[in-house]
């Protein structure tokens, strides 16, 4: 090829590739004068060659790029440094100098260094046990394990509120049994059940650490629960249900929370399922609420029949958003503690003694039993997993039995509260637990 006419260039010489060599002292003015040709060509820096040469490649489309030409291992090599004018003349000389330095040290400048792998929790714990803190251990636990759990959000809350304030910046291996016992004992003074959950979480975190090779010892091994737990057996009687329902309308509770409490009593479903209920799960025409497997403890799709009272609750809620019971944040349901907090703060107002939202689920099961609903149908309404051999092979869905059970309970609940609407107006006569007008006995 013919060399372009370049102002100030030296006499061209041909290299071993057949290209004529053009040399110049690189300046912006000189580079702007380099015009594209039919074939690409190279302009080398004027001056001593030393360890390789700085060159500018000019392509037929007008693109210009800096290159470093050098020999390594007996072979001629070329590497791109950057595009002009994004890489300035000064930048090109600096990159050229860095590449020459690598070559002079016997390294191939075209080979990029392997990026240093980010330290893993295991490598960090082995390298410096003293600086592998409880915070780092908890982070590893959440990232590698707890994020997959349905209780991951609650684990993160307890870590943030309980564990990190106490131990966060200390070495995980330095925490002693005595310190953990003291933390749990303090928590048990005001929240004994929460103290037990905290103990279980700390144990799981340290057990995870030992299993993953982050720690050598779990200080929670053999540690007893800080508080005794007794299985709850609280069931609201018919008269208590009547009083609770009647006073619910006048309680200082947000409408979404009020209707959620009603749906808990109508359906007998778990609080978290009702709280996160979405309109996309509801089919009004088929009177069916389909709970996806991702929300279920047994990872199985659960179908809940919508009785007349359940449909009344849904009719009272706006279906313009994602969730049936929206929270304060757009696109989010209300938080986990809303219903329990609302009940706790209004126990005196309800006037039926101590109870929790979960007791409504037990109440529904007990009331269905009094209606002589078959136990297997009650278990299916509650979405309890049958782990027996028979349960493993029995794939019948019991949808008909669930529908009959929930409709029977809806009729009984309507009788108890004395109204088919959600107005809260109590037209009921005094009821007792032995007064039933509906049942679905199988005899």
Structure characterization notes:
The protein has 443 residues and is of the alpha+beta class. It has 3 domains: 13-104, Integrase, DNA-binding domain (Double Stranded RNA Binding Domain, 2-Layer Sandwich), CATH 3.30.160; 121-211, Tyrosine recombinase, N-terminal domain (DNA polymerase, domain 1), CATH 1.10.150.130; 238-417, hpI Integrase, Chain A. Helix content is 42%, strand content 11%. It is built from 17 helices and 9 strands. It has helices spanning 28-32, 89-104, 121-127, 134-144, 152-167, 177-190, 192-211, 238-248, 255-267, 271-275, 308-316, 338-345, 347-350, 357-370, 375-381, 389-393, 399-417; strands at 13-14, 20-24, 41-45, 53-58, 64-72, 75-84, 282-283, 288-291, 302-305. A 6-stranded mixed β-sheet has the order 1-2-3-4-5-6. Strands 7-8-9 form a 3-stranded antiparallel β-sheet. Strand 1 and strand 2 form a beta hairpin. Helix 6 runs antiparallel to helix 7 (192-211) and helix 15 packs across helix 17 (399-417). It is elongated, with a radius of gyration of 37 Å. Mean pLDDT is 84; it is low at 1-19 and 423-443.
């Amino acid at each position: 090829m013919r060399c372009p006419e370049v102002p100030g260039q030296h006499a061209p010489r041909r290299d071993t590739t057949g290209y004529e060599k053009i040399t110049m002292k690189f300046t912006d003015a000189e580079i702007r004068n380099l015009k594209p040709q039919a074939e690409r060509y190279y302009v080398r820096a004027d001056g001593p060659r030393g360890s390789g040469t700085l060159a500018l490649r000019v392509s037929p489309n007008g693109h210009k790029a800096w290159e470093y030409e050098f020999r390594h291992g007996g072979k001629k090599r070329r590497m791109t440094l950057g595009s002009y004018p994004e890489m300035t003349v000064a930048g090109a000389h600096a990159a050229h100098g860095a590449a020459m330095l690598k070559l002079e040290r016997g390294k191939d400048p075209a080979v990029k260094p392997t990026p240093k792998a980010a330290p893993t929790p295991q490598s960090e714990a082995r390298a410096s046990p003293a600086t592998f803190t409880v915070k780092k251990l908890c982070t590893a636990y959440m990232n590698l394990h707890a994020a997959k759990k349905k209780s991951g959000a609650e684990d993160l809350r307890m870590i943030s509120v309980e564990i990190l304030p106490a131990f966060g910046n200390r070495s995980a291996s330095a925490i002693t049994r005595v310190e953990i016992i003291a933390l749990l004992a303090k928590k048990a003074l005001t929240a004994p059940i929460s103290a037990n959950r905290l103990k279980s979480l700390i144990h799981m975190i340290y057990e995870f650490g030992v299993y993953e090779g982050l720690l050598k010892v779990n200080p929670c091994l053999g540690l007893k629960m800080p508080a005794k737990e007794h299985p709850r057996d609280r069931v609201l009687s018919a008269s208590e249900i009547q009083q609770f329902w009647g006073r619910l309308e006048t309680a200082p509770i947000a409408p979404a929370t009020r209707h959620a409490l009603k749906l808990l009593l109508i359906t007998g479903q778990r609080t978290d399922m009702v709280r996160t209920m979405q309109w996309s799960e509801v089919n009004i025409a088929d009177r069916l609420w389909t709970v996806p497997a991702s929300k279920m403890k047994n990872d199985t799709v659960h179908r809940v029949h919508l009785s007349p009272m359940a449909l009344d609750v849904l009719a009272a809620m706006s279906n313009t958003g994602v969730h049936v019971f929206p929270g304060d944040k757009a696109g989010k349901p209300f938080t986990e503690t809303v219903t329990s907090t609302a009940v706790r703060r209004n126990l005196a107002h309800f006037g039926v003694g101590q109870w929790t939202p979960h007791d409504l689920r037990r109440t529904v099961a007990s009331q269905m039993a009094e209606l002589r609903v078959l136990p297997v149908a009650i278990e299916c309404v509650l979405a309890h997993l049958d782990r027996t051999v028979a349960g493993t092979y029995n794939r019948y869905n019991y949808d008909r039995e669930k529908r009959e059970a929930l409709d029977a309970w809806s009729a009984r609940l309507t009788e108890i509260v004395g109204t088919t609407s959600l107005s809260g107006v109590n037209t009921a006569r005094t009821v007792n637990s032995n007064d039933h007008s509906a049942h679905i006995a199988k005899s």
